[in-house]
Amino acid sequence: MTTPFHGTPAGAQTLDDAARLQEIADLRLNDSDIDAILSEITAEAAEHFGLPVALVSIVLDRAQYFRGSHGLDGWMATTRGTPAEWSFCQHVVRSREPFVVDDARNHPLMQSSPLVRIEGIRCYAGVPLVTSTGNVIGSFCVQGPDARSFTEDDLTQLHRYAERVIARIEQRRQG
Amino acid sequence: MRTDQPGPADYGLTLPSEAEVIADLMKLVGPDVAIFAWQAASDPHGNGGQPGNPEDLLLRIAEQLAARPDAAGVFGRSLVIRVNTYIALSVTRISA
User: Fold this and answer.
1) Which of A34, A43, A121, B69 has its CA 20 to 30 A from that of A50?
2) Which residues of A touch B12 (CB under 8 A)?
């Protein structure tokens, strides 16, 4: 299994990689049908982990875009995304690895994010959404307001959800 | 009205200027596509554009860009989210 990324990215990828952004455009993720399809999977994940929020976050060049979600409330339920630089999910895309945060208040990459300082997110685990062409387009993740740890089995389960998400997205491309 | 609710400044969020947006778009898709996309988005009916406050203008342009089926469309979607976040945080602060 891939070692979860807790710190500095090694094989870093930029968010504005042209091939990655073109593939995101080609996937037609703005279409309205995709939200319901992916939100079913996020609802299942939130229940499995006993956490309030699960997301399919497509990481664009300057923002993360929630194309499937469970448990969002407040302004994020309206905006369906946040600036990329605040996000946990940017680190999944940049590193192409799982990103795990047990307690964001003590995490060097996340403690200053307003999602932690103001919105109160404490724990996060996300795995890459990798297309068949090898581009990482975002993250499948769960998060919550209390510190907690995640096991290798948890990450295995997240990878299964991510594979289902990619299968559904790519099925639409072929159809 | 309370004013102690966090607003965009507490989140470190500012609206980009038109010049900054155009420069970023040029960097991403090249000057020719960027200028074409910007002109089409900012004045889709060729009537000189519509007046409005900076948030509304940027949002309108961002939504036009987001409808494009290419990397400029992805850039537009990013901009839609950033401007909507700015507006949502401003509204939350005012209405709290």
Assistant:
1) A34
2) 114
Average pLDDT over residues A3-26: 76
What pTM value is reported for the model? Answer: 0.89
Distance in angstroms (rounded) separating the CA atoms of residues B43 and B72: 16
Distance from CA of A63 to the nearest CA of B (A): 5
Contact B81 A118 (CB under 8 A): no
HEC assignment per residue over A17-72: CHHHHHHHHHCCCCCCHHHHHHHHHHHHHHHHHCCCEEEEEEECCCEEEEEEEECC
Q: Kindly identify which residue of chain B lies nearest to residue A83, measuring between CA atoms.
A: B82
Mean pLDDT score of chain A, rounded to an integer? 92
Percentage of chain A modeled with pLDDT above 90: 82
More confident residue, B59 or B29: B59
Q: Taking CA atoms, what residue in B is nearest to A17?
A: B28
What gap in Å lies between CA A174 and CA A161, rounded to an integer? Answer: 20
State ipTM. Answer: 0.91
What would the mean pLDDT of A98-123 be, rounded to a whole number?
98
Contact between A102 and A150 under an 8 Å Cβ cutoff? The reply is: yes
B82: which chain A residues are within 8 Å (Cβ-Cβ)?
62-63, 83
Count interface pairs A-B at CB distance under 8 A. 75
Please tell me the CATH superfamily of domain A18-174, with its number.
GAF domain (3.30.450.40)
Q: Which residues of B touch A26 (CB under 8 A)?
A: 69
Instruction: Return the domain boundaries, chain B.
Output: 18-44+54-95
Q: Where are the domains of chain A?
A: 18-174
Q: Which residues of B touch A118 (CB under 8 A)?
A: 6, 10-11
> What are the pLDDT digits (tens) for A24-61?
999 989 887 888 889 999 999 999 999 999 999 999 99
Pairing of strands A63-70, A53-59: antiparallel
